[in-house]
Design a protein that fits this description.
The protein has 177 residues and is an alpha+beta fold. It has 5 helices and 8 strands, in the order βαββαβαβαβββα. This is DUF1697 domain-containing protein.
Length: 177
């Protein structure tokens, strides 16, 4: 059995409201073990011996059926999450939010192109480390940023989700319990 975190996209935003206890129940009913949630933004820790591909297919279908919405989730094992956290290129600062994007393969390059093409990106930085995309933006600017609008692009809904790097740290702490 391996420990994973499923990062759900679009949870508790724009009318897609889910109680994490219900989401955990859906995961348990799908046959995974040791299910728990971290925060209310769709971070579900669990254990399974199944392949990531099978888990993704099964869990997306179960979530879609139960909550009557088109579910997208991204699954990473504990080692991958540690690498995401430890590879963050930006220092923590009270003036900035540091984000990482959990993506499908190749999407990090698409994100960098969107960042490079953004008109307004004052005091923002973006960097790809290995295959992980990181973005730093001043606090209060996330949704006002030209690049920040990429989060709502329908063409990318099945290719990415984002998390504050502090959330990644909380997930790691929860996984090590």
């Amino acid at each position: 059995m391996e420990k994973y975190c499923a990062f759900l996209r679009g949870v508790n935003v724009k009318g897609t409201n889910m109680k994490m206890a219900e989401v955990c129940k859906v995961f348990q009913n799908a046959g995974v073990k040791d299910v728990s949630s971290v925060l209310a933004s769709g971070n579900i820790i669990f254990s399974s011996a199944d392949s990531v591909e099978n888990l993704k297919t099964k869990l997306e279908k179960e979530l879609s059926d139960y909550f009557d919405y088109e579910a997208f989730l991204f699954i990473r094992n504990e080692a991958e999450i540690k690498a995401i956290f430890s590879s963050s290129p930006f220092s923590s600062s009270p003036e900035y939010h540091n984000y990482t994007f959990i993506t499908t393969e190749g999407t990090e390059d698409v994100l960098m192109q969107f960042f490079d093409d953004a008109v307004y990106k004052e005091n923002e930085r973006a960097e790809i480390v290995r295959t992980n995309f990181y973005w730093q933006t001043p606090k209060g600017n996330t949704l006002n940023s030209d690049f920040g609008k990429v989060l709502g692009k329908k063409s990318l809904k099945d290719r990415l989700t984002s998390r504050n790097i502090n959330t990644i740290e909380k997930i790691l702490k929860a996984m090590s319990k």
